[in-house]
Each structure stands twice: as C-alpha cells, then as structure tokens.
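Q: What would this chain look like folded?
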Amino acid sequence: MTQVLVTGAAGFIGFHLSQKLLERGDTVIGIDNLNSYYDVSLKQDRLAQLQPQPGFTFHKLDLANREGIAELFATENFEIVAHLAAQAGVRYSLENPHIYIDSNLVGFANILEGCRQAQIKHLVFASSSSVYGANKKVPFSVTDNVDSPISLYAATKKANELMAHAYSHLYRIPMTGLRFFTVYGPWGRPDMAIFLFTKAILEGKPINVFNSGDMQRDFTYVDDVVEGVIRVMDNIPLPQDGETGASQVPYKLYNIGNHQPIQLLKLIEIMENYLGKKAIKNMLPIQPGDVPTTYADVDDLMKDVGFKPNTPIEIGVERFVNWYQSYYQL
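A: My prediction, written as structure tokens:
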C-alpha cells in the first residue's frame, strides 16, 4: 500500500487516477480548489464517487496557498505525488492570464517545495502536448526543441518541466513529466471538443469547427492515460545525463498519446454515427494559440514501462456518448 497525493482529484484525469489507485489498494489524499472554470457540480459529482471509498481523504485547497500546501506536506506522509492540478485550456489563457501564473507557476513551486521538504520518493506531474507549439516535425518527440510556445498555457507547462528538472538536479528528487495529448472519455471536461460537440449536436445547435476542420488531434482515451500514469509512477527514474550531459539527474519526460492523429472532420463523422444526428458546422479560422496538429511519439514510454495507449477513437467516443447520455439522463 502506497500513500499518494493526487492534486486535482476532482478534475477529469485526477478523478480517474484516484479511482484506479484506490482499486489497487493505495491510500489517496486528494486536493482540489473546485474552481469555477467549468461546472463545479461535475467536479462535486466526481468527488461524490470517491469520498465514500476507504482509503480516500479530500482537502479543499488551492495550489497557490503556500502555507496550506506546506502544512499538508508536513502533516501527511506522502510517498508519491501525482500532480495533475493546473489551470487548463489554451484559449482561456488569452482571457485570464493571471490565473495561469497563480496556479501553474506559483502553485507548482509550492508543490516542488513540499516534495523537497517531505523528501518524497517520486513526483509525477502533468505537462501538455501544447509545449510543442507549431512544431512541424511529426510525430512529436520529447527530444524535440520546445522553446517556442504559442500560448501562455504552453509556456507555463514548459516552465514546469524546467522547474522540476532544476529541483531534481539540486535535491536528487526523482521526477517525471508527462505530456498529455487531448485526453477524453467519461466524466470529461466540458470545455473539450468531444464534450462540446456532443452537447451541441444533441441540442441541435451549431458546433464551432476551427481551421475549417483542417486540424488533427492525437485523441487519447482517459483509461489509457491513467494506465500510463500509474506505470510511470511505479517506475522511479534513475539518475541520468541531463540535456547538456553535465550532471546525473533522476528526471524523465514522456509523451502519453494515442499515436494516431484523427482529422477533426473525421471525429465529427464518428460522433454523428453514435449520436444518430448530423452536426451543424460553423466553420471558423484557427484560433490564436491553437496548433494544426498533435501527434505523439510514444517509443520511450513503450521501452521503459511496456505500455502505449491503444483505445480506438470509435470505442472511446462510444463510451463517452453512453456516459454523457446516462449522466444527463437523456
């Protein structure tokens, strides 16, 4: 039995990860600030699934609360930290940049300090495929240069990777960053395309199709992401040469993506089939901060932990649609 801190436990991936950890017998301390970036009732309903389970404890806590995070690490005996909490969303970072600084930079610094003070065994943290920016080389590899972010959200995630590397180097704390690629599935985020499209198509409302549908996304089913996270958590990185070869650092980065990009118009077609309704498409130009393609190279993940995401988009979409219709009692 391992005691794990899961930040963002009421969030989409955090909820699924907490569920899986509890199923295998781990103790989970979950934190979340339950902010109103999207429907709080969805977060509360996720929590309601977790809270009755033995081994789960929840604290409502904001990452930017330095004293609160420090106290949490001082009073709990975490072995592993799965840091998934963050202010998400590329487009929202154009509207409210300060919340990204507070959550993704200040908050991450507080988590790093907590890990240092508590001498945890392994920090696994969420990065994002957004760090690749407008990279034209595909598939995206963790060895690619990612020094040209095109959104503030992406810049904060790249900063997280650098901050973690510095702490791992200075204090020899094993740390692993995971670049997630467009995660979807039951209990998903309402601001993500598959959720937005499902809602609009069922309500007979138009969907916004950016870049006239000429976009590809490496949609990754949430169960695959959670399996990848857990395997990485259990695979504590050993010291290895940093990028300059100057020092031995117990730090790793992985992509977690399906390795099968789907054209946006193809996704819509698949969704129409499962929903039994045609979408009304509102064709729009690409949005600031958006990228035309995401495509994950997962060779390192396969080599190190023996796993790569493999749920076909058709199966994942069907499961999401079934959950959506059940949850909203349609």
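The radius of gyration is 19 Å.
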